[in-house]
């Protein structure tokens, strides 16, 4: 469409280049689309306050051109579906709701309808109601997976529980209980973006089963954790109306108290009010430099389909992520810890971590036809990877404890910039007690202090 627009543009001098980027020319309708994880615009001020920059370090299309993969510096890896586009799940609940006709006509605020709006189920409602009422609806092999996930949850192994629930959801996307349980695991793990994924799961569970009590309550909790305080309170009030027997429960009273304390404990400053005036893009700090038509495009942005967690992308600005496999069925990304990560695309489950560099893995490119993967980073070498025979000796570059590696990367991604700098200089954070760079003991009794020692 950019090409067609250029041809139709008025020709000035023969040397002139006409593009839709020129500020005096409006962007043609349909020539540009924005994709962003639904929670990131709201988190942007918080990330900026912590000197954490969000920037896309790499984007690439799937082999069939229907999906877009983005490695988000300072955050996770996201997959966007370009065919079945998803509106953001940041559903607002202001006091004055619009009429149903307004919503049908597309009259919304910030690109989101002005009331709790549950997406329509993808399967026929009669079919969904037959399968989502209880765990007995699951076939035996999926019931076993669900029980394994519940056991992992009981052991507080949140990531393992999430992966097992995801495996079940991949095979039984009509089961509301699996979505509700996975939401609970996300809320316990609390990695970056987990509460937003939990919100998405709660809404999906309620789409499949509007009477899902736990999903409705967790939705209110997610809205609270995501700083949608007024919306959380209204959602909780709606929960009390639908489930009056739960209205005076300890959990309900505690959440009500937390929300009201956050709402009324201190008056908002003028800056806070300005920042919270829109939960989408109008609070963007450089909005004065963004043309109005581009702001409109940003407010029409589409949400992600899948999210991949475990790596760390904060140090270099060229870190790639790519599709891998004969049909792009895997996702690969480098990491600041010197490893590269491999996820199943559809389940988002982490399947392998390999040590690819002594410092940082930046680039990963698959061979176009053979099962080869080339990686490079800070080391002065490019490594080629291919499958090993099952009878071959163990691969010393396989990272066995994937959960610990992923957790360490999440801590690293949220670390103070000084800590990250020390890590990059070859030091390891050890806690309140450690060994100094000169080998001497260091101790500090003050809470929150860190000491370092050479790796």
UniProtKB/TrEMBL annotation:
Q: Which UniProt keywords apply?
A: Repeat, WD repeat
Q: Which domain of life is it from?
A: Eukaryota
Q: Where are the annotated WD repeats, by residue?
A: 324-353, 354-386
GO CC terms: Cul4-RING E3 ubiquitin ligase complex; cytoplasm
Task: Tell me which Gene Ontology terms the entry assigns under biological process.
Answer: negative regulation of fatty acid biosynthetic process
Q: Which Pfam families does the UniProt record give?
A: TPR_19, WD40
| Keyword Repeat annotated | yes
The answer, when asked if Membrane is one of the entry's keywords, is no
Region spans: Disordered? 433-455
Under which name does UniProt file this protein? WD and tetratricopeptide repeats protein 1
State the organism named in the record: Takifugu bimaculatus
Lineage of source species: Eukaryota, Metazoa, Chordata, Craniata, Vertebrata
């Amino acid at each position: 469409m950019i090409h067609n627009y250029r041809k139709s543009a008025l020709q000035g001098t023969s040397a002139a280049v006409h593009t839709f980027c020129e500020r005096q020319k409006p962007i043609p309708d349909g020539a540009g689309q924005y994709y962003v994880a639904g929670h990131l615009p709201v988190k942007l001020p918080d990330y900026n306050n912590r000197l954490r920059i969000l920037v896309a370090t790499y984007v690439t299309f799937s082999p069939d051109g229907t999906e877009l993969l983005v490695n988000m510096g300072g955050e996770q890896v996201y997959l966007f579906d370009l065919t079945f586009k998803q509106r953001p799940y940041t559903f607002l609940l202001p006091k004055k709701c619009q009429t149903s006709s307004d919503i049908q006509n597309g009259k919304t605020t910030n690109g989101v309808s002005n009331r709790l709006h549950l997406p329509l189920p993808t399967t026929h409602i009669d079919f969904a109601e037959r399968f989502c009422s209880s765990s007995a609806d699951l076939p035996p092999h999926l019931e076993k997976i669900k029980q394994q996930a519940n056991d992992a949850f009981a052991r507080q192994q949140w990531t393992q529980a999430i992966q097992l629930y995801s495996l079940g959801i991949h095979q039984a996307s009509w089961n509301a209980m699996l979505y509700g349980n996975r939401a609970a695991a996300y809320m316990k793990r609390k990695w970056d973006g987990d509460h937003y994924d939990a919100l998405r799961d709660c809404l999906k569970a309620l789409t499949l089963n509007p009477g899902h009590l736990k999903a409705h309550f967790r939705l209110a909790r997610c809205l609270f954790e995501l700083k949608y305080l007024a919306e959380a309170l209204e959602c909780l009030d709606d929960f009390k109306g639908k489930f009056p027997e739960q209205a005076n429960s300890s959990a309900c009273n505690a959440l009500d108290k937390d929300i009201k304390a956050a709402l009324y404990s201190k008056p908002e400053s003028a800056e806070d009010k300005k920042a919270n005036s829109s939960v989408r893009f109008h609070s963007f700090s450089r909005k004065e430099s963004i043309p109005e038509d581009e702001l409109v495009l940003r407010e029409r942005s589409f949400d992600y389909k899948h999210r991949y967690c475990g790596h760390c992308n904060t140090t270099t600005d060229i870190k790639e992520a790519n599709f891998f496999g004969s049909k792009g069925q895997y996702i690969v990304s480098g990491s600041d810890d010197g490893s590269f990560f491999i996820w199943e695309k559809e389940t988002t489950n982490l399947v392998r971590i390999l040590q690819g560099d002594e410092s940082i893995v930046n680039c990963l490119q698959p061979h176009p036809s053979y099962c080869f993967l080339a990686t490079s980073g800070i080391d002065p070498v490019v490594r080629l990877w291919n499958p090993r025979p099952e009878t071959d000796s163990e691969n010393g570059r396989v990272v066995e404890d994937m959960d610990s590696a992923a957790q360490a990367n999440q801590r690293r991604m949220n670390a103070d910039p000084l800590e990250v700098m020390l890590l990059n200089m070859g030091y390891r954070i050890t806690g309140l007690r450690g060994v100094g760079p000169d080998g001497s003991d260091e101790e500090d009794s003050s809470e929150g202090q860190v000491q370092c020692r050479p790796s």
